[in-house]
Give the backbone structure.
Amino acid sequence: MIAVAIAGLSLGAYVEYFQLEPLRREYTRQAKDFANQQEQYRIAGNITYEQYLVQKRHNEELNRKSTWFQHAAVPPERFRLLAYHCGRVKEKYERAARSPWLPVESD
């Protein structure tokens, strides 16, 4: 009986250390990556609509001068949407890092 308990504890420690810990680290890394992306998109989305229109006019002028590279102005709403999405994915990976034995749905 005691041997079974010791074997069970040893197997549990093995699974935790060699299989779940690398998953936990990977999920934590992915959560940090998405947190960084979320912050970048949040900053980019903090421009006013007037600033966006100025940037759009500037890019159109650059596009008239250049034939090999086209500049595009992205509306601030798009950046806010991307920041929201990155925040949701970040939360998913934070949950996965806390419980690495549970399955994680794809992005």
